[in-house]
Amino acid sequence: MSRAIPLIALRTFVEVCKVGSMKRAADHLCVSPAAVSQQIKGLEDQIGKRLFERDAKGIQLTASGRALYDELADTFDVIEKAWSGASLKQTRQTRLVISTTSTIASSWLIPALGDFKARCPNVEISIQICNGLSDLKHGHVDISIQREMAASPDNHATRLWSSYLIPVCSPELLSKQRNIESPQDCLTFPLLQDTERNYWKVWMNAFGMNNRKMIQGSSYGDESLLISAACAGQGIALVNNVFASEALQSKRLVQVTNATSELKFDYFVYCAKERREEWAIVEFMKWAVLQAGKTANGPVREVGQVA
């Protein structure tokens, strides 16, 4: 009697070869990385040969692994094609790991994510917080949303929005004092500072002002915290217009003046260049661009000239 063919392990092996990562293969197969590793180890034990070697770049096929993949790849392609033709409707299910900052996640991505789920119900989203660009080629992250980063030949980047600063506060705080008619009037309110105390300085300088008060006040290490402090009535905050969009729409914040100052950074969505045509990544990046276009269109603004 012939031995049973380990079809699940062989399918897992082919997927790892295609995507070049056990973690990424686990996401595509909707299993844990440990399960993928166990399937590969079991296959190696049955064959009696190593199929992968690890190096600084990740995993690489051995000569035995390459020979096996060359034999199997077309076979599984034929099986998948036959199954697609036999199914009345092929349901594609996958998971995307998205890396971004806590501010982008809480102020822009998560509030809008319901719209993406409605468009692509078969895509599961996993969000991880990171203040830098993740290793999209060799790591487990599929997509990264960050401020403009240094160009990499391994990454594909699509611009989402250009940001500008707007002064915001709670409606209750504004009702307690006189209306703000000019940028200078903001100095009569408590100012909420970013961690480097730079936003108000840039903004005031854009309108020809220089006052020690512009660097005074409580500071916050994350822009989402600035927005929360402003919503709590602690003062006026200068924040990214896109990140403040949801709080403005819900009337938890009001923009105190149309005077704004351009930021120096654009925001991009990144993926590995070699994976930019994968259907789930294509769908998410298309949606992100559309969503950014909706939220980036703020109110009419008077832009100061930054020296």
Characterise this structure.
The chain folds into 3 domains: 7-86, Winged helix-like DNA-binding domain superfamily/Winged helix DNA-binding domain (Arc Repressor Mutant, subunit A); 94-162 and 266-296, Periplasmic binding protein-like II (D-Maltodextrin-Binding Protein, domain 2); 163-264, D-Maltodextrin-Binding Protein, domain 2. Helices cover 40% and strands 23% of the residues. It has 307 residues and is of the alpha/beta class. It is built from 10 helices and 12 strands. The strands form 2 sheets. Strands 3, 4, 5, 6, 7, 8, 9, 10, 11 and 12 form a 10-stranded mixed sheet that branches. A two-stranded antiparallel ribbon has the order 1-2. The longest helix is centred in the first third of the chain and has 24 residues, at 63-86. The chain is elongated, with a radius of gyration of 25 Å.
